[in-house]
Amino acid sequence: xxxxxTLIAQLVVFFILAWFTMKFVWPPIVKALDERAKKIADGLxxxxxxxxxxxxxxxxxxxxxxKARESAGDVRSSAEKQASQLIDEARAEASRxxxxxxxxxxxxxxxxxxxxxxxxxxQVANLAVAGAEKILRREINAQVHGELLANLKxxxx
Length: 157
Prior knowledge:
Radius of gyration: 61 Å
Shape: rod-shaped
Distance between the termini: 170 Å
Low-confidence stretches: none
Helix content: over 70%
Number of helices: 2
Mean pLDDT: 86
Largest sheet: none
Strand content: under 5%
């Protein structure tokens, strides 16, 4: 066989194969590669967006934690103020109760002292009457002496 004819025939077959490949085989391969590249690009964009969303979410979490800590501090300080106010009110109420009890005890002690004085006066009067009775038994005018003792009893009261 002739080398030139073989070479020309191989060139013709090569160009027909190249044309057939470029016309029918190459476009679906290019299309598949383009779709794959687009999917990869979309995936990378989604990953970048997810990273940005994650960073934003982390910032929001940090901010919310800070707000929660501040709120907890406010609640704690409010509770401490309320507790100290309740303690002060309880102390004031206890002081009022103690003062009222002290006044009642002093009044009761005064009443008891008055009763004791009256009882003592009655006993002194009874002793005076008993003594006067003894004196009167010896004397004749009991009525005059009884009046004197009644006046004495009145003076003692």
